[in-house]
Amino acid sequence: MVATRGDALELAVLGLLHDAPLHGYEVRKRVNGLCGWSRVLSYGTLYPCLKSLLRRGLIEPEGTAGTGRRTRIVYRLSAEGKARFAELMTRGGPAAWDDDSFGVHFAFFARTDRATRVRILEGRRSRLEERMAGVRAVLARTAERVDTYTLELQRHGLESVERDVRWLSELINTERSGAPVARTDPQPSDTPPDTQRT
């Protein structure tokens, strides 16, 4: 089963509302920060998702925030929404390894068990290793026939995937050892692994 961006958005919204009630503007802002979707998550994408979750009884209005024309509906997770979020977080199959879904699952890893985390990390690594093999095969076939810039772009893509595979391997080893994942505060020059671009 391949995850869709809508599935990933549903999981992100449920996960954020699991933490605290929020209005739509705040949900959008946090999803953009969480998933790096600032260029693609519009209100035209978010509000149909919120309406669907309301219709299905997964979220409910808690009240309003603001005054006058700036009044916004505040949403909270219902009991059914909490159950749905828990169910989605236990899924560790191929849909959780996809580009659109992996980052969302990873953002909420603290709310799932170690076995599920390892299964998702291993699946994601396997998917990226397949991609890496494909890029290497293309490079081997086309290196002499493409211009310098195209070749450099392909090499950059390969290096990005290799970096993500190393990062995933480190996380898998940490999870298997039972040690807590080390928390580091990134410095301005640090670049975190890119889980969305690959």
Explain this structure.
- The chain is mainly alpha-helical.
- It folds into 2 domains: 5-102, Winged helix-like DNA-binding domain superfamily/Winged helix DNA-binding domain (Arc Repressor Mutant, subunit A); 113-177.
- The protein has 7 helices and 3 strands.
- The protein has helices spanning 5-19, 24-35, 43-55, 79-90, 99-107, 114-142, 148-177; strands spanning 22-23, 59-65, 72-77.
- The protein has a 3-stranded antiparallel beta sheet.
- Strand 2 (59-65) and strand 3 form a beta hairpin.
- Helix 1 packs parallel to helix 5.
Short description:
With 198 residues, the protein is mainly α. 61% of the residues lie in helices and 8% in strands.
Main attributes of the structure:
198 residues; mainly alpha; Arc Repressor Mutant, subunit A; 2 domains; three-stranded antiparallel beta sheet; 7 helices; 3 strands; disordered C terminus
Unreliable sequence segments: 188-198
Based on the coordinates given, report the CATH architecture of the largest domain. Answer: Orthogonal Bundle
Rounded to an integer in angstroms, the radius of gyration calculated over CA atoms is: 19 Å
Question: CATH top level of the largest domain?
Answer: Mainly Alpha
What is the CATH homologous superfamily assignment of the largest domain? Winged helix-like DNA-binding domain superfamily/Winged helix DNA-binding domain
Quick one: how many beta strands? 3
**N-to-C order of helices and strands:** HEHHEEHHHH
User: The CATH topology of the largest domain is what?
Assistant: Arc Repressor Mutant, subunit A
Largest sheet: 3 strands, antiparallel
Please indicate the count of domains: 2
How many angstroms separate the termini? 19 Å
Dominant shape: globular
SS content category: mainly alpha
Task: Report the average pLDDT across residues.
Answer: 83
How much strand content do the residues show?
5-15%
Helix count from the secondary structure assignment: 7
- The percent of residues in helical segments reads 55-70%
Strand order of the largest sheet: 1-3-2
